[in-house]
């Protein structure tokens, strides 16, 4: 009986050794490892691609808005005489209005004496209400009221972002000027965003 059990153990061990040493098993194991590696690589690639796509869309929207609404936005605005940050000065953006904006290197395009308005608005393109959009100036708002204050309902007259122009909005906060316009290089990469409107003084550092 003891000899019989020993023979069974030896036979089983030999069979397992033969199985694991066969080309088919080695090939299967290698294929499984390669498949897992490929799947992991694809997940990482998709994640990076999605992030880059979001950043590119944000930059594109801001550039589109600044080009088409610049003239109307500046209507009636007076250049600030003694702003803390001067035209052409290189600064760092502390604002987080768009992806890649916080910590970005920027240049002051100009500063204007005007109040700035923070609004909630319903995009004309549909979707949820956009909360706390920063910032707009008076020329970018249409209202039946002469005095704009917190709670005043307005219609947006700018296209900083897709779906803004003609959108119904409500003022939720008012900030004293000056209002700064900047060019900045996104920290996420991509082209320089030109004529970004607007930043308040506390959103900029030297």
UniProtKB/TrEMBL annotation:
Keyword ATP-binding: no
Gene3D superfamilies (alphabetical): 2.30.30.1130
Pfam family, one: DUF1541
InterPro entries: DUF1541
Top-rank taxon, per record: Bacteria
Stretches the record annotates as Disordered: 30-55
This protein's UniProt keywords: Signal
Chain segments annotated as coiled-coil in the UniProt record: none
Protein name (database record): DUF1541 domain-containing protein
Species the sequence originates in: Philodulcilactobacillus myokoensis
